[in-house]
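FAQ: What does the model actually see?

It sees only this:
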Amino acid sequence: KEILEKYHDLFTLQWEGVIGNMCVPSQAEWEQLLTNCSAFLFYGMERFMSHVLLNWLVAMNIPKCRLVILLDVVRSQQSYQRITNSDIHKSCLRIALERPTETAMLLSLTGVGSVIALQWYTTLQENAERLELLFENLLSFGKTAGHTVHILQ
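And it is asked to produce this:
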């Protein structure tokens, strides 16, 4: 929340979304956020695709969204229990589609211009550091997404 407030004025007058654990967004809220944005940030627990319905996402057309940043794949005991309970009801193929590379491909097929995503599990603190570095380079310094990812590496 501090990072969003710090960079609020540099990027846009209007940040829209769900912050914290106020509520779990419905599929309609996910759709509204993705279709009405030029950039989308997911900073959360487990895999982004475990939060949205696959059939719903692949049917979307979201060309206005030029950049999706997925700072996900963070695991806690509680999130691991939730994802384990959810995965029991999914096929192996469905679970495979939730992996980072597959998620990036699916988002690209819906019209997203660029996707920045993690490839392995991490911590909330490491993702906070990545978010700070991303925003500093993208928003303060005006670097491209490609240059910013190179800096992150």
